[in-house]
Design goal:
This protein is an alpha+beta fold. The protein is about 50% helix and about 10% strand. The protein has 19 helices and 11 strands. The longest helix has 23 residues. The structure holds adenosine-5'-triphosphate (ATP) and magnesium ion. Magnesium ion binds next to loops.
Length: about 400
């Protein structure tokens, strides 16, 4: 094994030395075997959280009731979860009770999809009782065990299946897909926070077209907040989105702009979006509206600023179905004479000084805007003396 798996050797070996088992599980194994970029490393062990806390000095009890603790080792940290089975999800949020077990195969059997139910030991040997490797090779998503039962236990799994089809570009096995078609209303029972996470990851997937087509064909969208209110929205989204939308703010700005009778507020409330996603989405909508009035003018680029340039361009591209040369627009941005008001060579105080006896007031801001604009239009250069002369000319024109 190579990095980042080798980073976990210290903690795995510490458990093994104490007579416990420890395996790599979940997304990291799946991504390694399918040649994708490996994200976080999750580990599973037969040691209980209490036993782990005795073995490791630095731990954080992030989900002790479900058997998960975070173990810190130098600059790395790993989520380690005790082998467990899951009871019923009676509130469709969290399993009502979990039972710790000592057998990895029992733990793998409670996992959602075969491709997520492969364990790997520190030497790279697989434990793959549900033939997840075969499904990875055939690019198939299917549940561990009976799909109807597994989706009834936790209906979020239906959306997770579609999310994985979007991330991996895999097909959903027909039996699993039929179960989604038959059970889709159950998704409405799941907490919307869990739904949001999966929906955002779906839009970010490399094969988002694949995911959206399953979302449409399985009718699972009928159980998604806001989508369910419109006969046409899912279809319009499927038509327009042809590549991943990376930023969560862009996703919701786009959804609002596509069908503007659904306000951003409505999306935010229905999906319980975080303040930072809300803020990002509303800024992008604001910038998009400026763009509608003024195109990609110096003023719009100036208001957009470097960090929001890429999201704004992806938003415009999505909605208008066109493409921009990002580098060219970025170049245009970098050649603006000023990038923010701080860079003006004068302040409001200078303005007041230039008109003896004048008082603070709205006129100061108005002049500042006008100066800023003239400089952006390359009609005025950003030096104090030129600005002073120009302001005097404007003032004379106004008093005539
Ligand atoms: P990602 O790369 O997005 O983190 P992941 O597969 O690691 O993908 P997680 O949500 O982090 O997904 O879950 C880790 C593992 O836990 C999954 O691979 C799966 O084995 C199991 N799992 C997660 N959620 C569920 C669920 N709702 N039902 C059954 N098993 C689940
Ligand atoms: Mg994960």
């Amino acid at each position: 094994l190579k990095e980042p798996f080798t980073h976990a050797y210290n903690v795995i070996d510490a458990l093994i030395q104490q007579g416990f088992q420890c395996y790599f599980v979940g997304g990291a194994v799946r991504d390694l075997l399918s040649g994708k970029q490996v994200g976080d490393i999750d580990l599973a062990t037969d040691a209980t959280p209490g036993e782990m806390q005795l073995i490791f000095e630095r731990t954080v009890p992030i989900g002790i009731e479900h058997g998960t603790i975070l173990v810190l080792d130098g600059e790395h940290s790993f989520e380690i979860t005790t082998f467990r089975t899951e009871g019923m999800y009676d509130d469709f949020r969290h399993p009502s009770h979990v039972e710790f077990v000592r057998d990895i195969i029992e733990d793998l059997s409670r996992r959602d999809f075969t491709i997520n139910a492969i364990a790997m030991d520190r030497n790279g040997e697989l434990i793959d009782p549900f033939e997840g490797k075969k499904d990875l090779d055939n690019k198939i998503i299917q549940t561990v065990g009976n799909a109807m039962e597994r989706f009834t236990e936790d209906p979020l799994r239906m959306l997770r299946g579609i999310r994985f089809s979007s991330q991996l570009g895999f097909d959903i096995d027909t039996y699993t897909l039929d179960a989604i078609k038959g059970l889709n209303p159950l998704l409405g029972k799941v907490s919307v926070e869990r739904v949001s996470v999966e929906l955002i990851k779906m839009f970010q997937g490399q094969s988002v077209k694949n995911g959206l087509s399953y979302l449409n064909n399985s009718n699972l969208w009928l159980a998604l907040p806001v989508f369910m209110e419109s006969e046409t929205l899912i279809h319009d989204v499927q038509q327009k989105v042809n590549r991943p939308i990376n930023s969560a703010g862009t996703i919701f700005a786009f959804l609002h702009l596509l069908q503007s009778n659904f306000s951003l507020k409505m999306w935010a409330k229905s999906y319980k979006l975080s303040n930072s996603i809300k803020r990002e989405a509303s800024l992008q909508i604001e910038l998009y509206n400026l763009y509608i009035k003024d195109g990609l003018s110096s003023y719009v680029l100036y208001e957009t600023k470097a960090v929001h340039l890429h999201p704004l361009l992806s938003l415009i591209e999505l909605i208008e179905g066109r493409t921009y040369d990002f580098n060219e627009i970025q170049q245009q941005y970098y050649s603006l004479p000023i990038k923010s008001r701080d860079e003006l060579m004068i302040t409001g105080k200078d303005l007041i000084d230039w008109f003896p006896g004048a008082k603070r007031g709205k006129w100061v801001g108005d002049y500042m805007d006008r100066i800023e604009n003239s400089i952006l239009q390359n009609q005025l250069s950003n030096n104090k003396e030129d600005i002073r002369k120009q302001v005097k000319i404007w003032s004379k024109q106004e008093s005539n």
